[in-house]
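Agenda item 2: magnesium ion complex prediction
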Amino acid sequence: MTVVSGRSSAPWVDLYARRGGEPEVLRARRQEAIERFEAAGFPTARDEEWRQTNLGSLLRAAPAEASRRPLQGGEAARFLYPDCPRMVFVNGRYAPELSSPPRQVTAVALAEPGAGGDTEAILEHLGAYASGRASCSADAGVHPFAALNTGLFEDGAAIVIPDGAVVEPPLQVLWLNAPAAPATESGDGTPAVEVSFPRLLVIAGENSQVSVIETFAAVDPKAGGYFVCPVSEFVCGAGSVLHHTRLQADATDAFHLGFQHAQLERSASFDSSSLAFGGGLVRNDTVGLLDGEGSHCTLDGLYVIDGSQFVDNHMRVEHRQPHTTSHQLYKGVLDGRARSVFNGRIYVHQAAQKTDAKQTNRNLLLSKSALANSNPQLEIFADDVRCTHGSTIGRLDEEALFYLRSRGIESEQAHAMLVYAFARELVEKASHEPLRQDLEGRLLASLNGGGTR
Amino acid sequence: MLRVSDLHAKVEEQEILKGVDLEVNAGEVHAVMGPNGSGKSTLAQVLAGREDYDVTAGSLELDGDDLQEMAPEERAHAGLFLAFQYPVEIPGVGNSYFLKAALNAIRKARGEDELDAMDFLQLLRKRAELVDVDEALLRRPVNEGFSGGEKKRNEILQMAVLEPRLAVLDETDSGLDIDALKTVAAGVNALRSEDRAFVVITHYQRLLNYIVPDHVHVLLDGRIVRSGGSELALELEEKGYTGLTNGSSGV
Ligand SMILES: Nc1ncnc2c1ncn2[C@@H]1O[C@H](COP(=O)(O)OP(=O)(O)OP(=O)(O)O)[C@@H](O)[C@H]1O
Ligand SMILES: [Mg+2]
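Presented output:
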C-alpha cells in the first residue's frame, strides 16, 4: 500500500480504484464523491471544521481492506435484541446468516441486487445528502469522510418504510468489527488499519413510524486497530416519526469517524440518541435539515469516556422552513485523560420564522486531566425566532458526595450514583425495554470499571 | 459515647472552633445553642467528617474510637448521623433509592443482611408514617425542589430509617411549622432509648419543650462558654447571649 504523507488522499483513492460493476447513477455519484475527497484532501488542524480533531494517528496508519473473517456462532448475539428484526454486517459486509430482516418493509443489503420496486427510491436518495450535494447551506462544504464513504462503501443497508406504515418493534442494524488479529503491519512498519464503510439509508414514507437502532461494536473489545467510517442517511417523509438510536461501543483504540444526516419534510419528526462508550478517536458529524414546515428534530447524545479516548460531536441543525423546532441535549462524562469536543451549530435561514431551537451541552469531568470543549455557534437570519443554548463543564458536587457518604454510602458508590444521576435521562429515554436495559448496563459498567476515582 | 476534647478546627484558614469540650453519654439528649456564626454547624460537620474542615488540635472519640481516623461513611457505619442544617439537593437520585442504598451500606458494613426491595419498602412506609412524610416525596429526587420544611422532615425520615446511635440535629426545627415541629420531636422521642444519644442544635427554646434535654450548652465564638440543665435554655430565651462571656467552664 502507498505510504501516506501530509494531506495525501492517495491510499484511499487507491482503494476506490478497485471498485466496479454498479448502476451508472451510483457509479457517477461515487466518482464525484471521491473527486471531492481528493480535492479537499485529508483534513488537518488547519481546516476550521477539524481544528480540534487531531487525526494524526489515523494519518500515520496505512489503510487496508477489511478482512473476511467468519464469525463463531454467538459472537454477534450479545449485541442483538432478540425481539428486533435485524441486519448484521461484519466488517462492513452483510452477513445474511446472522440476520433476520423485517418482512413488512423493504430492508436490503446494498451489495445484493433486488430491492423490488424501491430500487429507484434508494438510488434517488443514496448519497444525495451525505456527500455535500443536496446538503446544507453553501458554507457547509464537503464532509471528507462522508465523501470517502460514498466513494468506497462496499455494502450497507437500505430500509424503506411505506407510507402510513407503523413498524414495531424497532429494527436493528448491527455493524460488527472483527479485524484480523493481531493487527498487521505494512512493509515499512506503519501500522495497518482495516477500514470499513458502513452505509445506512432509511426512507420513512409519509406518516410512517419506525425506530431504528444502530449498534457499532467490536467482537473483541481489545482487538482494535480498525477504522470504521459510517454514514447514515435518514429521509423523513411528511408527517413521519423516525426514532434513531446510535450505540457506539467500538474497541477503545478504534478510529470511528461517522456522519449522519436527517432530512425532514413537512411535520416530520426525527428523534435521535447517540451514545458513545467506545472508540479511541471518535468523531460524529450530525446534520439535521428541517426542510419542511412544522418539522421537529431531537438530537441527543451521551459520551462516557476514559483513558485517552477522544470524542468529538459536530452538530449542525438547519432551520429552513417556518415553525420548525430542534432540541439538542448532549452530555459527557470524562475520566482519565479523555477529551471531548462539542461543536453545535444552529443555522436559521431567513425564511424560517417561528423557529424554536434549543441546545444544551453539559460535561462532567471526573479527573484533573480530562478536558471538555464546548462551542455553540448560532447563525440566525430570521427575526422572529427563539434560540437558546447553554453549555456547562463541571465536576462532581462535593457537598452531594459528602451528604451521601455521611449516610453510610461508600465513596466509590457515591461517585457512581452521582455520575449515573447526571447521565441517566439519556439512557432512560429509550422506550424499547431491552435497549434501555442494555444502555443502563453499559453506563453502569463504564462507571464501575472507571479508573482512578 | 461521644467525647470531644479541646477541639480546634479551621475553615478556609480561619479558626472557627477554638477548644470545644463535650461529653455525651448513651441515653442523653444535649442541646447546643449559641448565636449565628458561633461554630455550631462547624462542630456538627467536623463530627460527620467533612474533609475541608481542618482539625488542628484536640480529639474526637466515638465509643473510644478516634473519629478522625474514620471516613464519613465509616462514621455512619459506627452509628453517627447528622441532620444537616442545609440538606443537599441531589438531582437524579431518587429519595427512596438513596435511603435503601444508605441503609444497606450500613447493614453490610455491620455484617448484616441487606434488605430486599420489598422489606425495605415496608420499613420505609412505616417510618414515613411515623414522621409524617408524604409518599410522593419518596419518589422524588433527594431534596430537589423540596420546601424548607420538607427537607427537614426528610432528614428526620433518614434518621428514623437508619436508626443511628448518636444523632446530631443541626437546626432541624428551623423553618418548621408548629405541627411539623411536633412531628419531628415525636420522631426523635420515638427513637430515644438507653443506648442512643442526641445532640440537638437549635436557636429556639420551643423545641426543647418537646425534646427535653438533659444538658444545655452555649457555644460562643468557637467555645462552649456555659453548660447547665434544661433551665439554662429558658434563661437564654429571657436574657439572650449578652452577658455570657468566654472563659466559663464547659462540661
Ligand atoms: N466554608 C466556609 N468558608 C468560610 N467560612 C466559613 C465556612 N463555613 C463556615 N464558615 C464560617 O465559620 C463561622 C461559623 O459558621 P457556622 O456555620 O459553624 O455557624 P453556626 O453557629 O452554625 O451559625 P448559624 O446559627 O447561623 O447556623 C462563620 O463565621 C462562617 O462564616
Ligand atoms: Mg449553623
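Discussion summary: The pocket of magnesium ion (ligand 2) is lined by residues B 40-41, 85, 170-171 (CB under 6 Å).
Owner for follow-up: CH.
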